[in-house]
## 1
Amino acid sequence: MHFRILLSLTCISAFAAPLCFAEKALQSDFSEMSFDELMQVEVTSVSKKAEKLSKAAAAAYVVTSEEIRRSGATSIPEALRLVPGVDAAQVDPNKWAVGIRGFNGQFTNKLLVMIDGQSVYTPTFSGVFWENFDYSIADIERIEVIRGPGATLWGANAVNGVINIITREAYDENRAAVAITAGNEIKHIANISGDYVFSDAVKARAYAKSKQLDGGISASGPMLEAGRKQHNDAEYKQLGGRIDWQISSEQWLTVQADLYRNDINQEHTFPLFESPFLNSLVEDTLEGEGAKIQARWHKITGLDSELQLQFSYDYYDRVDGKLTEHRDTANIEFQHQFAPRVDHEVVWGGGVRWSETEILPSMIILQSVRDDVYSWNLFAQDTVTFPEQHLSLTAGVKIDGFENGDSEVQPNVRASWQPNTATTLWGAISRAKRTPSFAETQVELILETSPPVGLAPLPTRIQVNGQSEFGAEQVDAYELGWRWQAAPNLAFDVAAFYNEYSDLRNYLPIYFDPSVPPIDVIGMQPFIAIDLESENSIEGHSQGVEVLARWQASESAQYRFVYSYIDTQLEDKLLGRDSLVGASQISADEDRSPNHLASIWGAFDLADNVELDVRLFYSGERSWVRTPVLQEFHIDSQVNADLRLSWRASEHLELSLVGRNLLKDEHQEFISESWPVPTQIERSAFLKAVYAW
């Protein structure tokens, strides 16, 4: 029922214009920027207002639409690989793990991801299912990435970073295009979208996208054969649209809607509740569908005063062996920006959020769980400028409140100083919280089964239990940054950080008398029951540095160097660092993200209509130990390369050839933290044709 309603709403906004299918023109406004203009690009995610990136008191980066186009990225995680300090690794052909400043995982929970300022994380795991949304790359204007806490403005879960995917407005003229991509791993991507102008005040755009991916090759693992063609191919379908209405010279309204349907084949190593009682390979299909609608009203209320009101509704339905979930979420948010004095700029606002989640029995979750969650928030931030000293100071705080009466306070203080027009020095002290997920407080799931061993007469099952007393995780972050435009064609951006973490999650066993072990019966089979419970017991710190250098060697050649380093040290405050009990989470949080990441990107205009992009990248080793079964996973450090060659055959047609992972036939990038089946990512190539008119 939900899906039909949202389908109707999307069709209204997407197809109100006759023949409104098409893709954007071949180049966006960002593509025409000079090197100096690129250094002065504005960012909105740092302080919820437009400001020059070069002056922002945060480790910020903007992935422009031109960078996305020239990288050949076909998904948002691929585009995020361009950002310093972001670790984007492919789990299998259809799943990704994306982290900022460590703690990477398929269900990363210390990262806030938004589309047009609206969160897309799932409250079930406090993470993002990247495979569940496959937005039209052609309609992304830019991706703003803030490394470090952003909770003062954006709220809980913006612990290590914020990713805001900003889609473009409709164009001021009728446009249309079709893009087709095909290769050995990408079976096809078809994207058709476009823009229609109803009047001087009303314009619209719409898109439809279809995507099919091939399956991967298995890597070696416990009881798993390497080199086997896997059951993890996928099909995606998505469509949506947007209407921009200039109500008057001082106010405008945007309404946008999207819906999608995914059929993703998967492999898991699920527990087996009959002999031989070992985790066994299971093939299934993730059937996911969802829809969202978002309306945003913006009004200029006076000189240096603006008001914004936003509403969104999101529906999501997922069925697979791991998780069967139905979720509805609604948000209402407002924001007011004004300048009480010439040297003060205040942003304040708040919002309410409602989410209803129902989890049904699956192969690892044996009981249904349902919950309604209501929350509210208020935030305020004041920026004071001292023009004569070329200094700005920012202080802010956000309060997140919950229906049980709990609240979380998240403050920050930032400063930015420009001793000259070419240099910016900045620093920040912030506190951010991650609120508990549904799984950590209420869900019970089976992790492992094992056969009878020694004197044990029964098989054993290991279960992870959420508990209602599990509280918020916390980080206190200290950051310093330096930006320097050394010459008109050479720029550097360096950021360093030190994060102190407390109350991080671990899963610890509920102790029992070994002489009288608890018994659990699943079906007709009794098991010795070992239960693990979520606890706020891990603490520690991380430290690191991120470097970006851009060099415009000539009008036709630009080079970009990125490097990041991180070191994370954690321990369980109840058990210490070396105890095998609870060691899995510490191992994962410390070592699943590489200490070193680096890349070099050369972008060359070989002729007026021929482009060559070459990207060489390095990723350090990853490893973690999965307890209590003591499975050890390790991925070696690796060097690989991507290449893109494009030819603009005419004013309307662009052809490009893209090669991925060219230095290896296949390689492993990441291993899922839950019921893993290791996958190797294969060398691939694809052709893309874009015809715009």
## 2
Amino acid sequence: MNGLLSSVYKLVDSSKLNSKRRSAIDEYCTQLKNITPELISEYSKKVSISC
């Protein structure tokens, strides 16, 4: 699981989100929602992105 989140953090540049990154984030958010709502909440706080 940590590998997945690390990949998300590397992808995310909250000051500049292009469509490719946005799409990747949406994909990760979908994957995370399938795992647990608590994790999604924690992820959103860390990267300042709402899924």
